């Protein structure tokens, strides 16, 4: 049986999308027929990741990836990086239908010894940078007059505390709140704004931390019996980007294997 792809003719931009959750979302949106532009941090490692992502996309589309994919270097903590991503997406593909604010950092630090530098860097990357990137995307969608979908990658940490995440959890609560307020502010333009709240997801950032006993113990708390993988976020993101979610805005979707309802 042939299945209809959900994002044919859609143009998507995603921040922080050469690794982890962002990369998984980018690949699945390509599989669903979208053209995708991604932002990545401008260092040697992420530049290499962007090139490998393009090669993977070539394998999916069975042709030159340039027709489907565009990569834009930039530090998302700087407001101009989000604006540049939107600008180059439209220059490349002619429009912007879906925007995924995904870029973020999650360093673990003790509350009493964390430095101002780390706090400001986390807030500027996870929340302030996201704010201005979402603003740029919304301006473009409003100008187009055809609506759109904005997805903020928040976290289960928006709903619970973390001993070594006092600087991180407020930023993820902020993303959730931003999507709720944007849903109200942008609904009149047909722009839907929703948040995805991942639980504990195995990525390159936390793989070492989750190896061994810690990961095993955390898995036991998840009703579905395992920690999440980046691909687990791809389906929910595609749903929110697609017309199947045309009456969904201001929503928060936990993607956590049931962890939140099992926390005691």
Task: Please outline the helices and strands.
Elements: E1 11-14, H1 20-31, E2 35-40, H2 44-61, E3 69-73, H3 79-93, E4 98-101, H4 116-144, E5 148-153, H5 169-186, E6 191-198, H6 207-210, H7 213-220, H8 231-241, E7 252-255, H9 259-262
Parallel strand pairs: 1-2, 1-4, 2-3, 4-5, 5-6, 6-7
Helix pairs in contact: 1-2, 1-8, 3-4, 4-5
Summarize this entry quickly.
By secondary structure, the chain is α/β, with parallel strands linked by helices.
Number of domains: 1
Average pLDDT level: 94
Distance between the termini: 44 Å
Based on the structure given, which CATH architecture is correct?
A: 3-Layer(aba) Sandwich
> Strand order, biggest sheet?
3-2-1-4-5-6-7
Helical amount among residues, as a percent range?
Answer: 40-55%
Determine Rg (CA atoms, Å).
Answer: 18 Å
Q: What fraction of residues sit in β-strands?
A: 5-15%
Instruction: List the total number of helices.
Output: 9
Biggest sheet, open or closed, and with what strands and sense?
A: 7 strands, parallel
GO molecular function: oxidoreductase activity, acting on the CH-OH group of donors, NAD or NADP as acceptor; quinone binding
Keywords: NADP, Oxidoreductase, Rhamnose metabolism
Organism: Lipomyces tetrasporus
InterPro entries: NAD(P)-bd_dom_sf, SDR_fam
């Amino acid at each position: 049986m042939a299945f209809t792809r959900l994002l044919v003719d859609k143009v998507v931009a995603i921040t922080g999308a050469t690794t982890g959750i962002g990369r998984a979302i980018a690949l699945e949106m390509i599989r669903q027929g979208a053209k995708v532009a991604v932002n990545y941090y401008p260092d040697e490692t992420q530049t290499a990741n962007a090139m490998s992502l393009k090669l993977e996309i070539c394998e999916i589309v069975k042709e030159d990836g340039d027709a489907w994919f565009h990569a834009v270097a930039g530090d998302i903590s700087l407001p101009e990086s989000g604006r540049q991503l939107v600008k180059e997406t439209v220059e490349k593909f002619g429009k912007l239908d879906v925007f995924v604010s995904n870029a973020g950092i999650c360093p673990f630090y003790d509350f009493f010894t964390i430095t101002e530098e780390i706090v400001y860097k986390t807030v500027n990357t996870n929340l302030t940078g996201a704010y201005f990137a979402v603003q740029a995307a919304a301006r473009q969608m409003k100008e187009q007059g055809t609506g759109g979908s904005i997805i903020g990658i928040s976290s289960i940490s928006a709903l619970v505390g973390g001993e070594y995440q006092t600087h991180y959890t407020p930023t993820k609560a902020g993303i959730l709140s931003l999507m709720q307020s944007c849903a109200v502010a942008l609904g009149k333009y047909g722009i839907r704004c929703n948040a995805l709240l991942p639980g504990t997801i195995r990525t390159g950032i936390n793989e070492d931390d989750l190896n061994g006993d810690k990961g095993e113990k955390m898995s036991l708390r998840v009703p579905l019996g395992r920690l999440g993988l980046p691909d687990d976020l791809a389906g929910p993101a595609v749903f929110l980007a697609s017309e199947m979610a045309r009456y969904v805005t201001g929503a928060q979707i936990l993607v956590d294997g049931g962890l939140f309802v099992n926390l005691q």
